[in-house]
Amino acid sequence: MKIAIGCDPNATDFKNELIPFIEELGHSVVDHGSDDPIYANTAIEVAESVAKKEADRGVLICGTGIGVSIAANKVKGAYCALVTNIYQAQRAQLSNDANVIAFGAQVMGLEVAKCLLKEYLGLEFDPNSRSMKKVQRIKDYEREADHAE
Predict the structure, then answer these.
(1) What is the edge-to-edge ordering of all strands in the sheet holding 2-7?
(2) Which of 47, 94, 100, 121 is the 20 to 30 A CA-CA neighbour of 28?
(3) Which CATH class is domain 2-148?
(4) Burial of 127 (0-12, 13-18, 19+ CB in 10 A)
(5) Catalytic residue among 7, 62, 80, 115
(6) Is 62 a catalytic residue?
(7) pTM value surpassing 0.90
(8) Residue ranges per structural domain of the chain
């Protein structure tokens, strides 16, 4: 898979440690940087890349992961989950078809993030699962809201 990644300046070292790990898992990485102190700009750029299918999935990092996940979820077609444990990393993909995940570099250790990333990237959403109706409702609402404007 092609993975888009980006962060705010505070998470640069964290991101730079994750990139070779993602590559070791057999994925290619597109680094969207870490220089912009306005984390929303980088989050939107990564989310747009994923929504436009330029990348298969995205990874975002800021201090807590909250800000980048909120920003990414404003992009139509981007579905970002803030994950902090293995079960969330699994369910982000299996139950929610999240195409972007977010981490908090100031609230999570690097080795934990690697475990979560490995789990998330190793799973695929099953469109025949019982979660499909739930995921489809989110996508339908997104289209409905887009037409209401």
Answers:
(1) 28-31, 2-7, 57-62, 100-104, 80-82
(2) 94
(3) alpha beta
(4) exposed
(5) 62
(6) yes
(7) yes
(8) 2-148
